[in-house]
Each structure stands twice: as structure tokens, then as C-alpha cells.
Amino acid sequence: MLRWVAGENIPNYTPAAFFLHFGEGYKTGSAAAKRHLEFFRQTDMDFVKIQFEQTYSRQEFLRKPADWSKLKLAGLDFYEPQLQTVRELVKAEKKNSLVLMTLYSPFMCAGHCAGAPLLLQHLEENPEAVKKGLEILTESQMLFVRACIKEGVDGFYASTQGGEAGRFRNPAIFNQYIKPYDLVSMKEVATACPFNILHVCDYVAPYSSYDNYQDYPGHVVNCNVKLNNRVISGQEITGLFKRPFMGGMDRHGIIGTGTPAQIEAEIRQVVKNSPRRLILGADCTVEADTSWDRLRQAIAVAHQVGSPA
Fold first, then answer.
1. Which residue from 244, 235, 249, 252 is spatially nearest to 298, judged by alpha carbons?
2. CATH number, domain at 240?
3. Mean per-residue pLDDT, 119-140
4. For residue 309, pLDDT beyond 60
């Protein structure tokens, strides 16, 4: 993968990876590490990607914008269950494969704390007050990021939201109060890690464009080809971000419901119409009940199909 990131073309081979959540009992600690390893080895994907499951619980005291200054800084003890998963996966697989940690943006973490509707309301009412909470969440995130780097991860799958079409009545809120905190960790890992993926997440809503994200760091960009008003190609995404594209498969589409023949046909079409340097994957996390054998088959097809020269 590092040779691929460096620009080396591997004839008749397209890297591929799909991600899913493993459910209760497999979120953190040793159980999560074992489940991730089972999934990685059964699907034969090209790198290990650790799901971030140590999310914030709802903070009931957040009732008005000024309350964000009271947010308690989560220290490393809060992240320890997740760090145990990281530690064990690095020990088990780093010698063979790249290991990436998922990272949710401070804005996404704020949504866990307050719920998205209340967070958006507060940002519209008094973004300067909410900024205090985003600063605290960013400081906490950096503790986790640096601990993961110390444990030996090779990079991060950095997920961002907030710039979706119609998310804010005042679009400037994204550039002034969300993007600056996204970039704190992303800029640090850009200098510390050899392989980072920028994930522009449309789980909440689609985007009208990706213009706000073009200058975000990341060796690869993973996003949906479907915007709210049109479909763009992997070639366009590569040109827009000036880096390789990961994706091509609709998480709600054939990858979850199609026959083996349908899956193979779609993958061959995706690869044929994509830039030479493609990582086949979904636009976001696939459904948790997706068959691992189905994903293994998809990845095997990609491994046998080279992108256009």
C-alpha cells in the first residue's frame, strides 16, 4: 500500500476495503481487536481500519450555547478501552499491514454530546459560545491522536461532516467554526503518518459540492459520487482533490443485496470508469449485517482487475 500511495502502479490489481460496525460486545478492548482481525483476514482487504466506538455520551446539561464552556475534557483514561484495541491490532498485524484508526471530527463529537438538532441550534444562535466546547473536544481528540501515533498506527481515517447542503442557514458557520477544528488533528497526522484517508461523510445528508474540503489533508479521499443535484465521477473527484479516490460502491446498493454476478459486474464497471489509482470501497460504512463472504468476494474481484493505465 505504501508503494501504491507513492504512485507505483500494480498491474491487474486494485486495492479494496470495506468497513462495518461489529455491534455490542465488539466495540472496544480485546473483543473488538479480535473481531477486527477476524474481519480483516476473512475479507482480505488491503489495510486494517479500526472503528472508533469510544463516543461521548449525551451531556444533559447542554441546554443553551453558554453551557458548552462547561464541557469536561475527556482524558486518556476515557479512551483507554479504544486504545487497548489499537494496541492489540498494532501488535498483531502492523508487521504485515497498515493499521488506520478512525477519527470523528470535533463537530461530530459535539453532536454526540448534545444531539445534532440542539448543536445546530446553538451554532446558529451563538457560535462563539459553542466554540468553547469545540476547543475542549479538539484538545481531547489530540490526546487520543497522539496516543494512537505512539502506539504505532500508520494513519487515520478522518471523518468530517458539517458542510452538507442546507446544514446551516448561514454557510459561513462551517468555515469559521467547524473547519478550523477539523484541521487541527488532520494537519498533525499529515506530518506524522504515512497513510491517511479523508472521509467526507454524507451519512446525515448529501453535499452540493466538495469545494470546502479540497484543501483538507489526506493521501486519499473517500466520498460519495452522488451529490444532492448530480452524480460526479471518480475521475472528477481525483481531479478536484488532486489525490487518489476511494469508493465507487453505493453502501445501500448491490454490495449489500446483489448476486455474486451482479457484484462482479458492477465492480468491473466501476474500475473501468475510475482513475488508475483507485481503492475500491463504499461511500461510507456498509450495513452491519452485510455478509463478510460477500465483501470478500467483492475484494477478490477488485484484486483481479487492474485500473485503466
1. 249
2. 3.20.20.210
3. 98
4. no
Location of C-alpha cell 443535484: 229
For residue 309, being part of any structural domain is answered with no
In a domain, 111, yes or no: yes
CB distance 158 to 218 below 8 Å: yes
Range of the domain at 294: 2-303
Q: How far apart are the first and last CA of the chain?
A: 18
Domains identified in the chain, total number = 1
Phi and psi based region of residue 126 (left: phi greater than 0; alpha: psi -120 to 50; beta: remaining): beta
For residue 45, give the nearest of 84, 25, 15 by alpha carbon: 15
Check residue 308 and give its pLDDT.
58
β-pairing, 197-200 with 245-249?
unpaired
Q: 116-125 vs 106-114: helix axis angle to the nearest 10? A: 110
In one-letter notation, the amino acid at residue 31 is: A
Distance CA 265, CA 247 (A): 16
Answer whether 0.85 is exceeded by the pTM.
yes
Binning the chain into helix, strand and coil, the percentages to the nearest 5 are 50, 10, 40
Distance in angstroms (rounded) separating the CA atoms of residues 232 and 226? 6
Q: Which amino acid is at 127?
A: P
Whether 308 is covered by a domain: the verdict is no
Average pLDDT along the chain: 96
Say what the pLDDT of residue 11 is.
81
Alpha-carbon distance 307 to 309, whole Å?
6
Q: Which three cell numbers stand for residue 177?
A: 467554526
Is residue 189 within 8 A of residue 145, CB to CB? The reply is yes
Q: Evaluate whether residue 296 is within a structural domain.
A: yes
Grid cell digits, residue 129: 459560545
